[in-house]
Amino acid sequence: MKRLVIFGAGHMARIAQFYFSCDSEYEVAAFTVHKRFAEGDEFGGLPLVAFEDVEAWYAPDEFEMFVAVGYQGLNKLRSEVYHAAKKKNYRLATYLSSKAVHFGEVNCGDNCFILEANVVQPFVKIGNNVILWSGNHIGHDVVIEDHCFVSSHVVLAGRVRLGGHSFMGVNASVKDGVTIGANCLIGPGSVILKDTKPGSAHLVKGTPASPVPAERIAPLLTLDRS
């Protein structure tokens, strides 16, 4: 089996440990976090080491890494750690659930996390460091750019393009052929019928969803490093 170090020591890391351990070719060997956030030297029954010197304990030529960080700051924290792990020469593992529905090989990058009951239709392209939580419909010819988070029961109809660093809330739907600009926040239950500008936020205010003032969503975009 391949050996894996998971970055993180919270809920996301615990979930990643479960899926990789139960449904992949990887054996989870350890966890790592930045030294200032380490609480003890163990997590999930395995060693917890400082990210600053993780390669001294788990060499990049022997272990792969998975960055188990959520969507804080529109995925910016996960993106930062992703690039930091690459600089340490780690290969970044992708998890594709055996219970996802697809036709042959899924075209996706590294450090992706694709959970059960996702339907991925033909000709879909998924970038690097993308999380697809459970139960989404990813229509034909959809492009999901790097560092996105798609929560559950989201519908991306055919030929949708989801810009990098974007977040899709539960039960959101996007009409076919629509482009979601980079760094967009699409709130739960939103229905998007036309292209959105980069950096915009659309929350439920009827159908279709409408943009909301930046000050209303600023707390949601704050980069939480706790």
Question: What's the SSE blueprint?
Answer:
Elements: E1 2-7, H1 11-22, E2 26-33, E3 42-43, E4 46-50, H2 54-57, E5 64-67, H3 72-87, E6 95-96, E7 101-102, E8 113-114, E9 119-120, E10 125-126, E11 131-132, E12 137-138, E13 143-144, E14 149-150, E15 155-156, E16 161-162, E17 167-168, E18 173-174, E19 179-180, E20 185-186, E21 191-192, E22 201-203, E23 210-211, H4 214-221
Structural description of this entry:
The structure is a single chain. This protein has 226 residues and is α/β, with parallel strands linked by helices. The chain has 2 domains: 2-87, Rossmann fold (3-Layer(aba) Sandwich), CATH 3.40.50.20; 95-205, Hexapeptide repeat proteins (UDP N-Acetylglucosamine Acyltransferase, domain 1, 3 Solenoid). Helix content is 18%, strand content 27%. The protein has 4 helices and 23 strands. It has helices spanning 11-22, 54-57, 72-87, 214-221, and strands at residues 2-7, 26-33, 42-43, 46-50, 64-67, 95-96, 101-102, 113-114, 119-120, 125-126, 131-132, 137-138, 143-144, 149-150, 155-156, 161-162, 167-168, 173-174, 179-180, 185-186, 191-192, 201-203, 210-211. The strands form 4 sheets. An 8-stranded mixed β-sheet has the order 6-8-11-14-17-20-22-23, with helices on one face. A 6-stranded parallel β-sheet has the order 7-9-12-15-18-21, with no helix packed on it. A 5-stranded mixed β-sheet has the order 3-4-2-1-5. β1, α1 (11-22) and β2 form a beta-alpha-beta unit. The longest helix is centred in the middle third of the chain and has 16 residues, at 72-87. The chain is globular. The model has no long low-confidence stretch (mean pLDDT 92).
